[in-house]
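Exam revision sheet. Question 4 asks you to relate a sequence to its structure. Input first:
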Amino acid sequence: MPKGTFTGFLYWIRKSEYRVDTLEFMEVPVKPHRDMLDTPKDAASRRALVKWVLWHPLWSHDCVHQRPVDWETNPQAYFSDDKRTMRSADETWETHTERDEGSFHDCLYMDFVYVNPKTYSIDDNEALNTKFQVWVEAGGWMDQSEEDWEPTGGWNEHNKWAHCHDMDLDCGGDTVEEALLELAVRVKFYYNDDGTDKEPRPERCGGHWADEKNEEGWESDCIRGAGGYCKKCGFRFNPDPTLKDVLEKRMSEIPRDKE
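Answer key, structure tokens:
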């Protein structure tokens, strides 16, 4: 699982009774990394890219299927002799694992907000929030059975999969189409076409707080270069800690409930 992904983020944050509203923050809409693709301008390319991201394998996970040995050549093999009822699987059936469960409907979350057009964030002064935005959070799937806890009754094919929040995919736009295009270029940047992580996964330079306890005096390890991008990591230079920097610190301090 990539470092940019908080596994089980929504599940165990809620379970531990901590509240972290990630939709209070959103970076000003500039290309996050110098090597990230620009969103296309022509209608045909935009349509193709939206379709591509909605059907990307990132949104699906493996599933175990049991099928009759001759199911491909004999579709009736699924049925009993009277051709009216489905047969139950027996020892003659084969087991197949295919990545065909889940969809973008499970893995994408959209919020519709008004932001301050100068900062692209939700301002405490509601009168300044005059620009409409569509914000997107998304992430692939994690196999919870690989974690160090187990639910009552154990894991099975129906309960072990949970979708994640990959904060590197957080984005937004003035319309749903623009938000999905921004999501698409991030998926292309971080993931392969089969849904696996790019290796090595692009990582922003870190940093540290002079006063870690009070989260004050952040010092970024990035070095500003041409176009406002870091000379080392290639990400947009940001003198302030990112939301991920803050959450990683706070989440490391939260005792995880394993019940």
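Marking note for examiners. The two ends are 22 Å apart (CA to CA).
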